[in-house]
Sequence to fold (368 residues):
Amino acid sequence: MKTAVHTGRQTTVTLRSLLLPIVTACAVLATAPAYSQSTDRTLTGSGEWEVVSVDPPLGSPESDLAEAREALADRHYGRARKLADSWIKRYPSHGLVPEAYLIRADAIYLNGDPYKALFDYEVIEKQYPGTEAFQIAAEREYEIATAFANGKRRKFWGMALFDAYAEAEELLILVQERLPGSKLAQNAGRTLGDFYYRRREMDLAVIAYDLYLENHPRADDRSEVMRLLISAHLASAKGPAFDPSGLYEAKLRLDRLEREFPADAQQLGADGLRTRIDESDAQRMMADAKWYLNRKDPVSSRFVIKRLLRRYPESAAAHEGYEMMVRYGWIKEAPEAPDQREDQATNTADDPQAEPPVQADSETSDNQ
Fold:
């Protein structure tokens, strides 16, 4: 899987709606026997082995951690944090250390400081891969990244003062790197692309959407992302004086959308969009021709116009280019059909007798 560096539907995330799923998850963890209790097997009267739960002895690491977990479930976040912090210092090599970090991070997060909670989540992600806490920490980081991407601010001296867009971007990339191919990675990839799109960072949106389509070819929202990718390519083309690659890529993506989702392409208005792309590229070529003429290079100018007439004979720029060739004597007369214009422009383009003197006028202003 390649690593990526929603649209207009920006989600407003309130602290309450963001933290409610975590509170619920913590309550579930508090009642789960996996960590607070050990298990044993006993032979029943029927001769079958039965798994039974055994409460950990008081004062044991398991019992102490269960106390921190219960405090978290009861929403005593300050107490849960202190208990988890003390537990980590006392048992730094215990097998339940990942869960202790998770409890402490959740306590900080639920107490209203998601940015500070990221430090403990990152300890889990970097030092304890493959654990249950690793998956949960990745989910928490995705939730925090989504909130930051939608405008939630970082706290400083107890006040939400600074945006956290850079942190959102980094977290969304890390989630994809750490859980490639997962549903969580897919969600992170889409959220990252939409984040760039909303911020009008179209070059980055193109990269993110392109990687999303490559990494998740069977995604349910594939058609929607393809349309967003086309739009991002078009938006990255900043005008006739700039690199036209965005136009060409948009046209290729539009062709692909028509092959895979013809109904969606028709709804998008593929024919009109293709005409718009062609007209934009034709205007770029016309601007190039004027630039060459202004630089006293009529040979190059005439060559560009000839190519323009061949590639986009019905465009408005082609009509303007044809009129320029007539004005400078590069063609002798004006046939009515666009294809005849192209043929005559091609036939006279190499005629040395057709070379005009270059004159500075409003038509030859510097467009570059």
User: Anything to note?
Assistant: The first strand starts at residue 38 and ends at 43. Residues 6 and 191 are 5 Å apart (CA to CA). The two ends are 40 Å apart (CA to CA). Confidence is low (pLDDT under 50) at residues 6-36, 348-368.
